[in-house]
Amino acid sequence: MIHEVDEALNRLLDESGFAASGVEVVFDAPTRDWAARRSAPTVCVFLHDIREDGSRRGTGGGEVYDADGLVVARRAPARWFDLTYLVTAWASRSQDEHRLLAQVLTTVTQADTMPARLLTGTLAELGLAVGLDLVGGDPDAPAASDVWSALGGELRPSLEVRVRAPLRGPHLAAAPPVTEGLVVRAAPEADPRDPEPARRLRYEGVGDAGAEGFGAPRERPATPARRRRRGGRQP
Predict the structure, then answer these.
(1) How distant is the alpha carbon of residue 65 from its chain centre?
(2) Residue 224 covered by a domain
(3) Cα angle at 154 between 151 and 156, to 5 degrees?
(4) What is the domain count for the chain?
(5) How many other CB atoms sit within 10 Å of the CB of residue 171?
(6) Neighbouring C-beta atoms of residue 150, cutoff 10 Å
(7) Is 32 within a domain?
(8) Potential cystine with 114: which of 79, 105, 130, 168 (Cβ 3.0-4.6 Å)?
(9) Is residue 188 part of a domain?
């Protein structure tokens, strides 16, 4: 699912005009060594935080059908995850970097969800809306300064883009469909003049007479003593 979100973001930014203008979109970590090797205008989209949204856990599932409309599997409900990307622009001049960031900002804020035409793989198969927004004011999200400190680089202008995407649940194979109907056959009634006595089926593990189980006779409860009539004599 993560690589499918990467592909959707890459397509989204390419459609905004980066591919036509020769700006490269990469998903590398913007470390100091990476920045030293960069030569062309680049937009870096670095995934630095993945968290599950427990409030969106579902209890229902779905069914998977084949080309003939038969149920071949049952699908567990999807689980939702927040993927946070640190987006930075790299160019020879600060003005160009700001222009690239402004273009990313405009693209991300145009819609609250990722366009369906950009989704691939399981994201397209599920048919669920993939959220897209900017991280702001979230106390649980890591600070940008902490991310830059962990990367060993210098703090620079950046955007934090969050994608809320579903992770497809596992598929459980369904039993094959029934192709034959139930067959019932009637046996002829036993002749009462037949000298062979009727036989009773016995099952393994069933005790003899008096034991609990199939075919075992039960003891008849004892008859309670007659109550003494009120005012009468005891015989």
Answers:
(1) 17
(2) no
(3) 110
(4) 1
(5) 14
(6) 12
(7) yes
(8) 130
(9) no
pLDDT along the chain (235 residues), means of 10: 96 92 93 89 95 80 75 81 95 94 95 94 92 80 76 85 90 71 71 61 52 49 52 50
Strands (E), 66-158: 71-75, 79-90, 131-134
| Residue that has been written with the tokens 């160009």 in this structure | 96
Could you identify the residue written with the tokens 């579902």?
58
The Cα 117–Cα 134 span in angstroms is 21
End-to-end CA distance of the chain: 91
pTM above 0.90, yes or no: no
Task: For residues 181 and 178, give the distance between their C-alpha atoms in angstroms, rounded to a whole number.
Answer: 8
- Helix (H), strand (E) at residue 166: strand 159-167
Residue 202 belongs to some domain of the structure: no
CA 164 centroid distance within chain: 13
Which residues are 26's β-sheet partners?
A: 44
Taking the C-alpha atoms of residue 113 and residue 8, their distance in angstroms, rounded to an integer, is 11
Per the structure, the complete domain to which residue 137 belongs is given by: 2-172
Alpha carbon distance 42, 73 (integer Å): 44
Q: What token pair was written down for 9? A: 């973001």
Sign of CA dihedral 123, 128, 133, 137: negative
